Amino acid sequence: MSELSKLARQALLQPQEAMLERDKKKNSLYIGIPKEISFQENRVPLTPLSVALLIENGHEVVLESGAGEAANFLDHHYSEQGALIVQNKEEVYKADIIIKIAPPTLAEIDMMRSGQVLLSSQQPSLMSLDHLQALMKKKVTALSYEYLRDEGNTLTVVRAMSEIVGATSVLIAAEYLSNVFDGKGLMLGGITGVPPTEMVILGAGTVGEFAARTAIALGAQVKVFDSSVYRLRRLQNNVGSRVFTSVIQPIVLRKAVIGCDVVIGAIRATNGRSPCIIGEDTVSKMKPNSVLIDVSIDQGGCFETSEITNHEKPVFRKYDVIHYCVPNIASRVARTATYALTNIFTPILLDLGEMGGDYGPDLGETGCAECYLSLPRTPHK
Fold first, then answer.
1. What's the pTM value of the predicted model, to 2 decimals?
2. Where is mean pLDDT largest: 7-16, 33-42, 123-132, 169-178?
3. Do 311 and 363 sit in the same domain of this protein?
4. From 34, 72, 92, 203, which residue has the greatest number of CB atoms within 10 Å?
5. Residue-wise DSSP of 71-140
6. CATH code at 300?
7. Per-residue confidence at 9, pLDDT binned at 50, 70, 90?
8. Is the distance from CB of 246 to CB of 223 less than 8 angstroms?
9. Cα separation of 238 and 352, whole Å?
C-alpha cells in the first residue's frame, strides 16, 4: 500500500470530533491587497465574497483603502467580510503574500520585505533589469499571471482576460459605428432588408474566437484571418456556425479590410513584438468612418497606423478611419474582469494555505509557493 493510501486510510479512522474542529490554523496566510497605482488599472484581484471565504478558512486579509473602488467594491464591502482596511500602503506590504494586478513599481518593491511571495502580472521580457534585480535582492518569490496554467494546461488568466477583451472589442466597435461618436451611423449587425455590417478579425486565438461569437450573435458578417489552419479550424468548431475563414494571403486580406466596416486586430506574438500585417497604404483606402481596433497594441500593434491611446482619449482618426488602440481593454469592464480573476486566485490561495501548513509558519521563507507550482494541480473542492 502506498504512503498516500496509508495516510488517507488513517484520516478516515480519525474520530468525528477531531474532524470537526474549527480552531484557527497555526500557519494561516497573511494576504495583502494594495491599491493599484498603474495608469487606469481598475481591476482588483479579490472580491469581498472571496475575501470572506479566505477568512473563513483561517487566513488574514489586509486591504489598502480604496483598492476596489474602481471596480465598484467599496471599503465597507470588504470590512464587513472581515478584512482589515488600512490607509497606509506600507502596512499592506507587511503581509506574507502580496496579490495585485499590475507589476510592482520600484517604489513598491522597496516597501516589500525579504522572503515575501508576490502574485502579479509580470512579463520578464517587458520588465527592466532594475526591477528584476530589486526582486532578486529582496528574495521575493514572484509568481506571474501570464504563465499560470490550469488543470487543462491552459494559460488560465490570459484566456479569461482574452475572452473579456474579445467580446468587449465588438461592443466598442458598435459604439464607434453609431452617431454618438461621429461614426457611420450604423447598427452593428443590421436588420431585415438591410445588409449586415462587415467585420474582419485578424487572429483566430481566444480574442478572435470571442470577438467572432459576439459579432455573429449581433448579426454581423464575419471574416477571420490567421496564419494557422489549425487555429482557424478550431475557431470554426468552437463557434458552431459557418464563418468565412482564410489563411493570411495579402491580396485576399487587403480586399477584405478595404471593404469592411470594422477590423479587429488580435494577432499575438509568442515572443517579442506582434507582426505588423496591415500597412498604412491599406488603411488609407478603407471606407470613411470605419472602425479599427488594435487589441495587439500592448505588443506593438498589428496595424502600421496604430498609436497607443488610453481610456480617457481612446480614439484618434487617421485617413478618416477611427483607431481604437487602448492596451488594457479589460479594465474598461473592471468588475467583470475582477470576478473572472477572483475565480482563479481564490482556489490557488486556499491551496497554498493548505500546503503552507505542511511546510512551516512562514510561507515566504519556506518556499511553499515553489513547491505548490511543482505539483500537479487538481480542481479545488
1. 0.82
2. 169-178
3. no
4. 203
5. GT--HHHHHTTTPEEES-HHHHTTSSEEE-SSPPPHHHHHH--TT-EEEE---TTTS-HHHHHHHHHTT-
6. 3.40.50.720
7. low
8. yes
9. 34
Q: Where are the alpha helices (DSSP H) in the chain?
A: 3-12, 16-19, 48-56, 75-79, 89-92, 106-111, 129-137, 156-177, 206-217, 229-239, 250-259, 280-284, 334-359, 363-366, 368-374
| 228 and 203 Cβ atoms separated by less than 8 Å | no
Domain encompassing residue 121: 25-147+333-374
17-21, 48-52, 273-277: which is most confident:
48-52
The domain tally of the chain equals: 2
Q: Which residues contact 162 (CB under 8 A, 6 or more apart)?
A: 205, 206, 207, 210
Instruction: For residues 87 and 119, state if they share a domain.
Output: yes
Residue-wise pLDDT for 100-143, tens only, equals: 998 888 889 999 988 889 999 887 666 778 888 888 888 888 88
